[in-house]
Write a structure and sequence with these properties.
By secondary structure, the chain is of the alpha/beta class. The protein is built from 11 helices and 16 strands. The longest helix has 30 residues. Bound molecules: 5-S-methyl-1-O-phosphono-5-thio-D-ribulose.
Length: 353
C-alpha cells in the first residue's frame, strides 16, 4: 500500500494527493508552515491523515524554536499549535492531534527544552503507528457486517491515503477482501475534488479489489436497481448525538440508502468522535473556493460571472446511520448512549494505563 506521510531526515514527506493517480510526487515540508499550507491546499487530506500531519508539523514547529528557556518555548509552541488547529475547520482529528501534542509538552514542562522537542517527535510517530493499528481494528470490527459477495457503495476516499495507511471505510473493505468475502465496490466520483475517481479507485485497484466508479448522481438509480447492498463511508467529525460530518454528498447518499432500506455504516476511529459537540448543527462546515466547482482541472467551464457555492462537507443526521464502526467495536443507535459509553470506557482505560 502507498505510504501517505513519513518523517525523513528532519522533514515531513507527503504524497501529493492533488496529483494522484497520474503522478506520484512527494511534497516535502521543511517547517510547520509548509505543513499548514499542505493541509489547506489538499496535498494531504482525510481526517486522520491531517491529524497525523498536524502532529508531525508540530514536531517540526517545536524544533524550529531556538531557545532553552521553557517559558519562551511554551509561549511560541502554543502559538504554533493554535495556527495548526486552524488549518481546516471540520475534521476534529486536527484538534485532537494538536491537543494531544500540547498535553505531551505540558506534562514535561519542567524538563529541558531539547527533551520536550524529542518527546514531541516521538509522539508524532506514535500517532502515525497507532492510526494504522486502529484502522486494522476498525476493519476487524466491521467484518461481520459485510455479506459474502456484497456490493458496497462508498463516497469520497476513506482509505490508506486519508489515514496513516489501510483506511477506515476502505479498511473494512480491505479486511473483507482479505477474508475472501468476494466483495465489489462502487465508488462515487465525489465532485469537486474527485477523491473517489482519483484516489479510491487507485487504492482499490492496487489491492486487486473490484471497483467501479459512478457519477455522484447515479447512486439512487443503482440502489433502486438493487445493485448496492450496503454503504460505508468515513467521517470527519461525529457529534455526541451521532450526527456525522463527512464529504459533501454523504447526506444525500444516506437518505437514499434509508429510502431503499440499505444499511448505511460509518467507519471512524474514536479520535473522530467529538463528545464536546452536541450535534451536527454545531460542526463548522468548511467553505472552499468556488473555483473548485467552476473549473475542471485548470479549465473554467462556467460562463463568466457565474457564482458558485462550495461547502466541502455535510451533516448526516444520526437517524440515517445504521451503525458506527470503531476500533472499540460497532456502535448502534441510540448513539447518544453508545457514544457516551465508549468515550467513558476509553477515558477510564487511558487514566488507569
Ligand atoms: O476534503 P477531504 O478530502 O479531506 O475530505 C475527506 C473526507 O470527507 C473523508 O471521508 C473523511 O475525512 C474520512 S477519511 C478516513
Amino acid at each position: 500500500m502507498i505510504q501517505t506521510i513519513r518523517w525523513q531526515e528532519g522533514r515531513v514527506w507527503m504524497i501529493d494527493q492533488r496529483k494522484l493517480p497520474l503522478e506520484k510526487q512527494w511534497y516535502v515540508c521543511r517547517g510547520y508552515r509548509d505543513v499548514i499550507r499542505a493541509i489547506k491546499e489538499m496535498v494531504i487530506r482525510g481526517a486522520p491523515a491531517i491529524g497525523i500531519a498536524a502532529a508531525m508539523g508540530l514536531a517540526l514547529g517545536a524544533r524550529s524554536i531556538r531557545t532553552r528557556n521553557s517559558e519562551t518555548f511554551f509561549k511560541r509552541f502554543r502559538e504554533i499549535a493554535g495556527e495548526m488547529e486552524q488549518a481546516r475547520p471540520t475534521a476534529v482529528n486536527l484538534r485532537w492531534a494538536t491537543q494531544r501534542m500540547l498535553r505531551v509538552a505540558t506534562s514535561l514542562e519542567s524538563s529541558p527544552v531539547e527533551e520536550i522537542k524529542e518527546a514531541l517527535f516521538s509522539e508524532s510517530q506514535k500517532i502515525l503507528e497507532e492510526d494504522i493499528e486502529t484502522n486494522r481494528a476498525i476493519g476487524k470490527a466491521g467484518l461481520p457486517l459485510i455479506p459474502h459477495g456484497g456490493t458496497i457503495l462508498t463516497h469520497c476516499n476513506a482509505g490508506g491515503l486519508a489515514t496513516g495507511g489501510y483506511g477506515t471505510a476502505l479498511g473494512v473493505i480491505r479486511t473483507a477482501h482479505e477474508a475472501g468475502k468476494n466483495i465489489r465496490v462502487v465508488a462515487d466520483e465525489t465532485r469537486p475534488w474527485l477523491q473517489g475517481l482519483r484516489l479510491t479507485s487507485f487504492e482499490l485497484m492496487e489491492d486487486g479489489i473490484p471497483v467501479t466508479v459512478i457519477a455522484d448522481n447515479a447512486a439512487g438509480l443503482l440502489m433502486s436497481q438493487k445493485k448496492i447492498d450496503l454503504v460505508i463511508t468515513g467521517a470527519d467529525r461525529i457529534a455526541a448525538n451521532g450526527d456525522v460530518a463527512n464529504k459533501i454528498g454523504t447526506y444525500q447518499v444516506a437518505v437514499l440508502a434509508r429510502a431503499h432500506k440499505i444499511p448505511f455504516y460509518v467507519a471512524a476511529p474514536l479520535s473522530t468522535i467529538d463528545p464536546l459537540t452536541k450535534s451536527g448543527a454545531y460542526i463548522p462546515i468548511e467553505e472552499r473556493d468556488g473555483d473548485e466547482i467552476l473549473k475542471i482541472g485548470n479549465k473554467r467551464l462556467a460562463p463568466p460571472e457565474t457564482r458558485a457555492l462550495n461547502p466541502a462537507f455535510d451533516i448526516t443526521p444520526a437517524r440515517y446511520v445504521s451503525a458506527i464502526i470503531t476500533e472499540s467495536g460497532v456502535l448502534r443507535p441510540p448513539f447518544r448512549k453508545s457514544i457516551k459509553n465508549v468515550v467513558a470506557s476509553k477515558l477510564s482505560f487511558n487514566t488507569t494505563k
